[in-house]
C-alpha cells in the first residue's frame, strides 16, 4: 500500500501500521483517513503529505 | 514613520520597543511588526501589525497615501502579530484581501470576516498593480501551515514574512544601520525559538527562493536585509542543516549545590583548546537563550537532583520546550544527585532518549554530596562530551533537510 510522507517533519504514514495515536486501524489507506487527521509528530493536515516509496 | 525601501516601496510598520515576552519568547531587545506599502497604479499593503498598533500603521501609510487609495492588503500569514490590525485596516481602506485558503481559515478563526472581499492566491500567481507586480510562493510551516511569501518582480524585494526575521527593535530599518553581531544574534535566537523544528520546510523555502534574484529581503520582524543577504542566507543554510559547532553545554538545576558541583566538574573535564564549554543554571539563564545555545551545540549535559521523586520543575519545563523545538543531531548525558532515590537523573535520561539525543553514557549519580569517585566520573564524562563535540564539528555531519 502507498506510504505518504509529511513534508513538514518527514513522518511517514504507513497504512500497514495505521496510527494508533488517533485510533486509525492498521490497513487504513491514506485516502481513507478522516479529513481532520493530522500528522502525529507535527500536527499538520493531510494536504501537506506527499506519496513516497 | 514611512521609510523608503525603493521609490515605490515603503516600510509602514510599528516598533514595539517594550515587548519583553512574545508568547513565552523572551524578546530582550523588543521587536517590530513590519508592514510594507507597494505603490503602482494600484497600491498594496503587505501584512499588517499587532492590533494595538493599527493607528500607527494607518498614520504611516497616511504620510504618502490616502488610506482609501489602498486597493489590496496581502496577508502572508494569519498569526495575530501580522493580522491583528487587519480588520481595522480593511475597514479603513475598503481594500480586497489577498491571501491563500489556509490563511483565510486562520483569519476566520480569529476575526469576523463577513463582509471582507477576498481573492485567493497560491504559488505562481501574480498580482498586477500596474508598474509593480507581486508574485506569491506558499511556504507551509514557515511558520504555520498558512505561511506564504510575496516577491516584487520589478524591485526584486522578497517579503519573507516570519522567515529571516528577528525580534529586534531598532531605529534603523536596515541591516547596515544596526550592529551586525546584534542582528545576527537575534536572527539566530529567532530561528532557534520560532522555526527550529521546521528545518525541512525552511530548506524547501530556501530552494524555492534560491532561484529568485533578490535585492532586499524584507521580513515581518526586525531589520530589512540589503547589505548582508549572503550572510543571512548562509546562516540559514547552516541552521537548516544543523551544522554542529564544537560546543558543550552543561545545563542544570540544583537544590543544595551537589548537582551544581557535578556540573562544574563536567565543565572542568570538557574544557580544552578548540572546544567551547558553557555552564548554565536553568533558573537564571532562561529558556529562550538556552534554545538558541542548543541550535548549534554538538553536545549537552542536563542535570537535576531528585525532588519529590521527579526532576526539578525548571529543568523539566526547559526540556518540554526543547522537545517541541526538536534540536537535531546532538549527543548528551544526564547527571544529578539525590538523597535516597535517583529518580531525577533517570527521568532526565528518558527525556534525552525521547528527544533522540544520542546518550553517551548512563546517568551520573551522586548521593548527598558527590564524593571524589563521582567527581572523577564527572570529569571523565566532560571529556566524553568534548570528544564528541570536537569530532562532530570536524566531520561537520549535516542533516538531510
Ligand atoms: Fe508566525
Ligand atoms: Fe511573526
Ligand atoms: Zn509532520
Task: Provide tags for this entry.
heterodimer, A: 53 residues, mainly beta, 3-stranded antiparallel beta sheet, B: 401 residues, alpha/beta, Metallo-beta-lactamase, Chain A, Rossmann fold, 2 domains, 7-stranded mixed beta sheet, 6-stranded parallel beta sheet, 22 strands, binds fe (ii) ion, binds zinc ion
Describe the overall structure.
The complex is a heterodimer of chains A (53) and B (401). With 53 residues, chain A is mostly beta strands. Chain A has strands at 3-6, 12-13, 49-52. Chain A has a three-stranded antiparallel β-sheet with strand order 2-1-3, with no helix packed on it. By secondary structure, chain B is an alpha/beta fold. Chain B has two domains: 3-240, 4-Layer Sandwich (Metallo-beta-lactamase, Chain A); 245-394, 3-Layer(aba) Sandwich (Rossmann fold), CATH 3.40.50. Chain B has 13 helices and 22 strands. In chain B, the strands form five sheets. Chain B has a seven-stranded mixed β-sheet with strand order 1-2-7-8-9-10-11. In chain B, strands 17, 18, 19, 20, 21 and 22 form a six-stranded parallel β-sheet that branches. A five-stranded mixed β-sheet of chain B has the order 12-13-14-15-16. In chain B, α6 (199-210) packs antiparallel against α7 (229-240) and α8 (258-270) packs across α13. Chain B starts with a strand and ends in a 6-residue tail after the last helix. The model of chain B has no long low-confidence stretch (mean pLDDT 96). The complex binds fe (ii) ion (FE2) (2 copies) and zinc ion (ZN). Zinc ion is lined by residues 6, 8-9, 11, 39, 41-42, 44 of chain A. Zinc ion binds at residues 6, 8-9, 11, 39, 41-42, 44 of chain A.
